[in-house]
Amino acid sequence: MSAHAGTDEFGLPDALATWVAKQRWYAGKGSEPRLERIGGWSIGDETVRITTHYILDRGVTSIRLYQVPLTERTVPLDDIKAIDIVDGRYIYDAPHDPAYAPALLGLILTEGTVEDARGHRQPGTPPLVVTNSAVLRGEQSNTSIICEVDGGAPVIIKVFRALHHGNNPDVVLQSAIAAAGSPLVPTSVGYLSGEWRDSGRPDQIARGHLAFAQEFIPGAKDAWRLALSSALTGTDFSVEARALGEATSQVHATLAAVLPTRQPTAADIDEIIAGMRGRLDLAIEEVPSLAEYRLLIESVFEGARDAPWPALQRIHGDFHLGQVLEAPGRGWVLVDFEGEPLRAMTERSEPDVTLRDVAGMLRSFDYAAGSVALTSGGETPAEWASAARHSFIDGYIAGSGKNVRDHRELLDAFEIDKALYEAVYEARNRPDWIEIPVAAIRRLAERRARL
What angle do CA 99, 101, 103 make, to 5 degrees? Predict the structure, then answer.
């Protein structure tokens, strides 16, 4: 931290680039940020001022846009380290400042407008007064703030760190499901939207979501941790997996009822299969041993192309056990509908195939079993995973009335596609885990060979 500091030509603290490079949500790891402010908004007074910056990072090959909210104070806060000191004013990461969450929620609930940001309140949401707030630890791509509310249930505000043009599926989908009366997602409170300049757009302006407020569920348990504990102890998870399958089918049904659906065209199918082939090529580059299965995998993909396809609709898009909570007295609750982080926001907002979500959860059960074997040094609890997978499918069929096993070729293709994505990730980040997705690819490819 610089004790005198100044600001650059964009009004950013000198120490900000160094601080940004250390944040978990910063995608340019290993590079030196080159920050340019292209917009934002500010509220407050001389004592406490909140300023949100929309900042381009030109220090990486692919230019990225981040939302960086800061607070400036004349008197330092206790127990919170300042990012910088500029002309005697202390600069803080705003989500950790107790003034930020009440101001943000206030904008949302009053549907206030400040510069290029505007609040949007979910119809029927009562007045809420924040009495305390704390940042949720461990998140990678966003920053979430848990807010205690006077006389009411707590609220969680998700601040989107990476900004994209277009509606964020997390806001759109969860709000739509909750508005339909479903208890299978948290109740929505509202959101903050904004706009910023973008020379690549026809009107030179990009628009997107900045933050999303929704119900926080105290005492909820993470489904991934529950599944891990079950796999580790050999406790049957079939009842829970079946209930999760039913819940997933009900969320899909709600999305199909409240948002547009359409039949897939030949161009849609070609595009999806082309994406699968691209991920196969990349996976073989990263994991050369997969080359021996190329022809079998391509056969699975071509079989999927020729198989009957269900209608396209909005889906979760990045579905796994970590996106599910067990809520006390309520059962399974699905969260984090942002979709696959590496896909463009416009792609994530397009109708897709529900079997992609089903395949994602099947892979997650495999991962739970595989990770238990890796951490315990024992054998993979394959029977546990198989029982959970079958029960999940049974629950999905019971809840939807649609026998997804009739779409075996299509489901296999989506599961292989997900495993290929996992193989690339593990090869780059956790080589010791590579056998989990490779084993799944091998199993599915060899099943094709037996047909």
Answer: 70
